[in-house]
Fold this sequence. Notes:
- This protein is of the alpha/beta class.
- It has one domain: Rossmann fold (3-Layer(aba) Sandwich).
- Helices cover 56% and strands 12% of the residues.
- Strands 1-2-3 form a 3-stranded parallel sheet, sandwiched between helices.
- The model has no long low-confidence stretch (mean pLDDT 87).
Amino acid sequence: AILAARMQKIPVLLDGLAATAAAAVLHGVNPTALEHCLLASLSPEPAHARAAQRLGLRPLLDLDISHGEGAGAALAAGLVKAAALTSSGMAAAVRG
């Protein structure tokens, strides 16, 4: 799914250790393959922090949730959308 999203230029919010581990496998094959990925939140598991650090990903949110079942991604999605709208609005104002 991460690779398919990259091919379609769709951003990906990684949330949790399992998603980050899947991204790490893809990163091992091609280090530039995660340029469309953001880390929604960082769980308190030490392995998650190590994986995120190796991938060069910093969490958008610090929720301290172990098993959030996508809560971090759901909350971060609004943040990413707001940032994109702000960015595109500023770009339009500069052109304008």
